[in-house]
Amino acid sequence: MDSEAITGVYGQVCGLSTPVSAHVSEEQLPEVGVYKVTAEWSQSDLVRSSRLRYSQQWTLITDSNNHRSIGTVLTPGPLSPDGSVLIYLQGEVFGPHNQCLRIQQLDLKSKKTSTLVDVVNRPQNGEFAGVYEAMPSCCWSEDGHRLVFSSACRNWKELFMVDRRSQTVTSLSDKSSRVYGSWKLLT
């Protein structure tokens, strides 16, 4: 699939104009084709003498038959840096709003799904209370072994890191600074 076709589909799916330039990298897995599209826009305002630049990365996953039809479009965040693992949040269907969610991971090579962080039903005082927010757009560590996210914890929001190998969740927030407010991961 050439970059013109991918950027055209990208423009149709996201509702934005087709990017000025795009870089496409391709990885062929046995069942699917994974295309990472890095698209860049730029706009010049001659009156104010300013220039606006915007860059975004999307992942396109093709179907298993001919690798020509795009079956899934992922916004930045859920696909690991090496393109082998997809993460997503899962909650109870028809469950309450703002419910505790589990972080699931799908290995795209083996097609196996596993739970990375499970629902916390009754958190102990001072322990991780569960995932209550969407994953940020840039949540992966460079090596793909850790995820960073923010979530509610009692009356505050805190930063957390989960190690995919040990499945341990670690707080990154400075507990002594709670007097000054909550933590939020900005990406």
TrEMBL record:
Keywords of this entry: Hydrolase
One protein family per Pfam: APEH_N
Entry's Gene Ontology molecular function annotations: serine-type endopeptidase activity
Sequence intervals crossing the membrane: none
Matches recorded under InterPro entries: 6-blade_b-propeller_TolB-like (IPR011042), AARE_N (IPR045550)
UniProt domain Acylamino-acid-releasing enzyme N-terminal: residue ranges: 79-187
PANTHER family: ACYLAMINO-ACID-RELEASING ENZYME, SERINE PEPTIDASE S9 FAMILY MEMBER
Family: Belongs to the peptidase S9C family.
Protein name: Acylamino-acid-releasing enzyme N-terminal domain-containing protein
Species of the source: Nothobranchius kadleci
Gene from which this protein is expressed: Nfu_g_1_010299
